[in-house]
Fold this protein.
Amino acid sequence: MKASISRSALTVLALALALVLAIYHGAMISVASAFTAHAPSISAGSRTTGGLSPANQITIRKSAVEDDVGTTLSSSSASSAPAPSSSPSSSSSSTSTNPRNGGRSTEEIATELSSGKTPRLEGGATVDFAGVRDETSRSERALLAARELFVAGAGSSTGSSSTTGSLYGRNEDGKRLMGINDEVVSEVGREVGYFASTYDEGTVQGCADWLRSRAPRGMFMTAEEGDGSAGEGKKVGPTPAQIETYTRLLTESYEESGIVTAAFAKTFYLGTKLMSPPAQRAIWAIYVWCRRTDEIVDAPRSPSDPDMLSDLSQWEIRTENLWNLGQVVDVLDLPLLDVRINYPKLDITPFIDMVRGMLMDIPELGQDRYLTFDELHLYCYRVAGTVGLMSMPIFGCDDGFTEEEAKEPALSLGVAFQITNILRDVGEDATTRGRVYLPLQDMEKFGVTEQQLFDQRVDDNYVALMKYEIERARMYYDRAKRGVPMLSAESRLPVQSSLDCYGKILDKIEENGYDTLTKRAYVSKWEKLFEIPFSWYRTQDIAKILPLPWDGDN
C-alpha cells in the first residue's frame, strides 16, 4: 500500500516535469517507442561482399554442406560452446541433428555461431555477430545465384515484381517503388512517393549529385573505381535555383518517410518527435529502408518465387551502391543517402546483417526451429540487434563514452525486444506460420512439446517455461539499461521509454497467467503514456541517488 501511495505521489511530480520537458521540445507527450520495438516482421534476405570493409566482414568457409544447389564442399568442424546450464541466461551451441530447422543444416548453424565475438559478461554473453555469414551455405549460394543472374541482365523471370520499379508513385506499367506494395499503400492511404511526380528523373539524380558533392572527400568511390556513374566526378555545380529545387525535393522525401513511419509505427513515430529534427528524420529514413526490405518478401507470392531472391539481390546491390558510390534509384533513396553523408560512422554492416535475418525466415532456405538459445541469439541479433547498431550513430554518445562501449547495451536491447516479441507471439507463430522460435532444448527441459503449442494448451509445464524465458529477457533489459546514460542527452528519453514500455509486455504476459498461446499481451496507449514520466525520471542524475522505489537495484 505504501508503495502505491509513493508511486501516485511521484506520478504527479513526474507528470508535471515531463510536461515541461514536452513543451520544451515543442511536442505532445507520447510514448517514445524505440525503433527496434517496431522492427518489421522478418521474412527473407540476400548476399553481399562489396558493401563491407575487410575489417567488418567475416566470411566463413568451413561448413560441410552437400545439397541440391550443385556444389560439393570440403568440410571443417566448428567449435562447440559449453553445454547448457540450468540458468535461463546461459547459452549453448550444439551440432546435434535438428530435423526441423528448415533449409539450414546443423553444420551451417554451428559454423556461424562459432564465429561471433563474445564479450565475457555475468549471466551469459551478448554475442556480436556483425558481418558473420557462411558463404558455403545453401541459402547464401541460392542468393548468390540470384544475384549473378540479375547482374547478368536476366533480372526478374516473370516480370511480376518490382525488379525495375518506379521512380515515384506508380508508373504507367503499374509498377511501384521497390518494396512498396498494396499493403503499404493501404496502410498509408495513398500511393507512396507520388509527391515526386512533379519532378523528372533528372531532378532526382541531380539532387543525388548535389548531395554527393557535400560528402566528405573519399566517402564515395569515383565512377572509375566503381562500376557506376556516381562518385566524386568533376561536374559543374548546381545553380541557386536548382539547389532550391533539390532542397525542396529532399525535404518532401523526408516528410514522405515520416508518413510511412507514422502509418506503420504510430507510437514510435510520436516518440521520434522528442528527438531533434535532424535525428528524427534520420531515423525515419532508416525505418523506411527496413520497411521496404521487409515488404519485398511480404508481397503476396510464393516463398519459392524466383522473383523474391532476384528482388532481394537487387535491393542489396542498391544498398551497396548507395554506400559505396552514393547512387540512388528513386526518391525514397535520397533521405538515406543524406543520412549516410551526415552520419559518416553509419556502417552498412547491420543493414546487410538484417537481410541475413530475413533469409533465416524463408521456408526451405532458412530456419523454422531453434535447437539452442545460441541459435536464437543469432536470429535476434540479425532482426533486432542490427537496428540498435543502425541507430547508434544517430543517437550519439555522451562525452566520455564511445560507440564501442555503447554497443553491447544496444545489442542487449535488441535481444530483449526480440525475445519479448517471441514470447508474446508463441501461439500466433505456431498456429498461423508453423514456426517455433522457443529453443527446443528449453522446451524439452520443461516438458513442453511442439504439439502442445499447436493445440494451444497451457499447463504447469508451459507456465514454468514462460517464467524461465521471461527471466532471461529481463536480464537482457537490465544490461540494456546500462547503456542509456552513455547516450547523448536528447536520445536518452526515447530509448528509456521504449525499454520501459516494451518491457511491460512481459508484465502483461504474467497478468495473463503466462498464456501466450490463446492470449496476446498488450500494453495500451494510456499505460504507455503513464510510464513516460517515470522513464524521464530514470534518465535524470537524481535517479542515481533516489531511484524509484519499485526499481530496486535496477
About this structure: Residues 1-87, 89-99, 118-122, 154-164 have pLDDT under 50 and may be disordered. The longest helix spans residues 240-264.
